[in-house]
């Protein structure tokens, strides 16, 4: 606090009205030359800007999201896009109409992840109910740390978790919505470690034997990140061999566990995967659970959460509050501020019901089966593996390679096909589909259908378009 | 993939029109009895729902956010609120009008964190520009992993980071926007650890000496969470004593470092705080930096980020893409999917300019000074400490305690005052302000002014209202 502050209180020059008679009213207060009366925000201008922007979002995003004739993306390389967008932040602010034009440009050059033909990652199209929930969330701007500041959203999260636990078939359980799968994997690892040795929370890993976790070679890459972040080390993630379908082989798991024990290390966790990232494979959970039981290993999360993370921050989680503080779940998470992610799921669930959710899953699987049959029928398309779920991995073999023997030259050439077709589809903006190499297999496309806005026509288009873009190769 | 699938292709009964002549058109495709033609979502109904919900959000949240006559909260205890809200998810979905009523209830019973008199946590009121950016984000639903799917938002993040690095005065730098301070502290800790021993990424902490980090006793509680999560252990967070203003004492830091070394442990990180959570104290960075330099200790983040987190997930971060893959920053973060958090800040910066941001800071500090002077003037209010920044910690001493000697009975009784006033303000809905005990000091209120919508009148109201609610105690 500056000692030489210029603190003064006086009436504004020339301002004479009745209200001046009321003490404290209309008295301009200045501190260090700054007028402190009233809010400084121009609420009317702000409100109008929000209204105009909402109209723009409605027209340019929501209404266009189901139109397959719109482009999926408006590709521009980074240097070009920098020239097209006015990104520079200046000393003075921009007027509302300039900002609205900027918003329009942001929308224009952004990838339309809601588009029925955006298949690049696991997106489910535009869900109107989830979108409304997220608009409400952003407008209310809650942070789910305590019941006091987030009463509705904590109850919503509780209701969703309760229902999910019911569906799993558990009698009891607890949980928390996380920002994503990577963070969830970290939680799982931390919980397993805490179960092995609760003292880790205070003592850390110092002086402990080498801890080993087991996961399939097909697991999500976040397992390695988690092991690195949590101080376990990526070399202490033992990858268990998978079968031809990408499923963990239980006998191999058992062998790896014995190997770790012989090395003098301590197995503490098995991370099984139900639906691997690339192939969509399901590890055989029953057989894995039996092995975990025999070795006394952790297979999944439970309600140790709270004891494990609690840091008892007295400034946030006062125990002398006037309500049931068990609703203050903020101390369960590694974050402090946290969005109510359960709310969007809850809104969709309320809107379409359990049966509606079920229909979506069934239809996605039926569409996957349709696509698989089409891939089998069509010349130049080849499945990497017969899928057991919604992940469909396939190569497109252009005419020039169709008669070639499947030797090193063939694979080297095929490896270049998917990147080229991807480049062409993005520049055209007709479609977005992911590709990757995987465990010795050259670049292939991966399609995962999950959106209720996707139809059989889109599946046909997908194959037609790949063929159209690649047939000259 | 089920072997006994019922795969059929036929024309819908009774449907005869010209389009049937075009092969593949209007041909109903069923797989396992599920019709695959066209999207299943009712887009019109969905669009109308979004429109109606936007109107509701505008009226009930945006337009009311600046009105101090609106209640800050509509308090209901958990069991009561559960009865008021229809939280149950059922087999069938609910119709749009029921959903809209639900949305209205959600808004009604949620705390209005935008309200000019919500001071419970560090909120800055409703920022119209940030809100629009967040609406756009939710509508476009991007995830900032690669340039390919998030071109605009990656460039925006780069522009904001560049500008921030410029303001700090660095010639170069790199960074990433994180979901919050807790996660950022974890990154800092992980980077420091990586600097001390890059092999930790692969080998983990096994076999390493005990690692020690130093932070002030006033630090954010997330430091302990981070130490626990990263396998360092909370006992290996050495808290350095602070002076009367809550600042780390450099000489004490030096002593603690020597102590750790004598114990055979390895100091690796000093976490200084610029603006502590409760008191708003600034650690003396220059003196701390000198000590860190002498001991070879890490004081803050740098651009080791990428090497440190990279897991090189080939399915996401293909190196054979047709554009500059240095824009695919997803591998820098511990998350995979990630929201473009820089975008909302960018939009506000664009809208009000650097000068507008500066004005906000200056006005918040001036309002803080005003409040401090008022606290000093008024009977029954007592500053905990002369603030140096925007955090103002104070007690309200009700009339019955004003003549009492400041002994154990006084403090025991004063400890109960803030919780009671807090309960009353929440039940009335007039104001929300946080309180906490802190390092031997009994419960006190903490006010941090940051919102441009807050005025001198709100500061007066804050003190008037506390006095009104507490004067009978």
From TrEMBL, chains A, B:
Record flagged with keyword Lyase: yes
Residues that span the membrane, as ranges: none
Region Disordered, annotated ranges: 1-22
Keyword Lyase among record annotations: yes
Cofactor(s) the protein needs: pyridoxal 5'-phosphate
Signal peptide: none
InterPro entries named among the record's database cross-references: PyrdxlP-dep_de-COase (IPR002129), PyrdxlP-dep_Trfase (IPR015424), PyrdxlP-dep_Trfase_major (IPR015421)
Keyword terms, alphabetized: Decarboxylase, Lyase, Pyridoxal phosphate
Biased composition (Acidic residues): 10-20
UniProt cross-references to Pfam families, sorted A to Z: Pyridoxal_deC
Quaternary assembly: Homodimer.
Family to which this protein belongs: Belongs to the group II decarboxylase family.
Protein name per Swiss-Prot or TrEMBL: Acidic amino acid decarboxylase GADL1 isoform X4
């Amino acid at each position: 606090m500056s000692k030489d502050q210029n603190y003064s209180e006086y009436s504004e020059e020339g301002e004479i009205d009745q209200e001046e008679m009321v003490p404290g009213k209309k008295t301009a207060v200045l501190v260090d030359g700054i007028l402190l009366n009233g809010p400084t925000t121009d609420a009317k201008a702000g409100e109008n800007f929000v209204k105009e922007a909402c109209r723009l979002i409605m027209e340019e995003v929501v209404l266009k999201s189901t139109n397959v004739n719109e482009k999926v993306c408006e590709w521009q390389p980074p240097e070009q896009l920098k020239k097209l967008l006015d990104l520079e932040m200046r000393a003075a602010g921009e007027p509302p109409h300039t900002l609205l034009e900027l918003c329009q440009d942001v929308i224009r050059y952004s990838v339309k992840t809601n588009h029925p033909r955006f298949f690049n990652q696991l997106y489910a199209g535009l869900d109107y109910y989830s979108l409304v929930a997220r608009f409400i969330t952003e407008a209310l701007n809650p942070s789910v740390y305590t019941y006091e500041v987030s009463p509705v959203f904590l109850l919503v999260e509780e209701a969703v978790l309760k229902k999910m636990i019911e569906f799993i078939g558990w009698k009891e359980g607890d949980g928390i919505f996380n920002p994503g799968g990577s963070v969830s994997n970290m939680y799982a690892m931390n919980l397993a470690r805490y179960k092995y040795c609760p003292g880790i929370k205070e003592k850390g890993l110092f002086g402990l034997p080498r801890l080993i976790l087991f996961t399939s070679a097909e697991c999500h890459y976040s397992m390695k990140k988690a092991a690195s972040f949590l101080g376990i080390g990526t070399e202490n993630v033992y990858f268990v061999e998978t079968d031809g379908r990408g499923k963990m082989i239980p006998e191999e798991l058992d062998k790896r566990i014995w190997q770790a024990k012989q090395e003098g290390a301590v197995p503490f966790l098995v991370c099984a995967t139900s639906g691997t990232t690339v192939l969509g494979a399901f590890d055989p959970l029953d057989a894995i659970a039996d092995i975990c039981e025999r070795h006394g290993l952790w297979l999944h999360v439970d309600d140790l959460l709270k004891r494990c993370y609690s840091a008892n921050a007295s400034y946030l989680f006062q125990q002398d509050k006037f309500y049931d503080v068990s609703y203050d779940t903020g101390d369960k998470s590694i974050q402090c501020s946290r969005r109510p992610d359960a709310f969007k799921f809850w809104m969709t669930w309320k809107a379409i019901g359990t049966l509606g959710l079920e229909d979506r899953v069934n239809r996605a699987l039926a569409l996957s089966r349709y696509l698989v049959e089409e891939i089998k029928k069509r010349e130049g398309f080849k499945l990497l593996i017969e899928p057991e779920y919604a992940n469909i991995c396939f190569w497109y073999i252009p005419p020039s390679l169709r008669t070639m023997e499947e030797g090193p030259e063939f694979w080297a050439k095929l490896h270049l096909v998917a990147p080229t077709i991807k480049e062409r589809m993005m520049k055209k903006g007709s479609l977005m589909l992911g590709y990757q190499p995987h465990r010795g297999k050259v670049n292939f496309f991966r399609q995962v259908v999950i959106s209720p806005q996707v139809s059989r026509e889109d599946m046909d288009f997908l194959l037609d378009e790949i063929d159209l873009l690649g047939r000259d190769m």
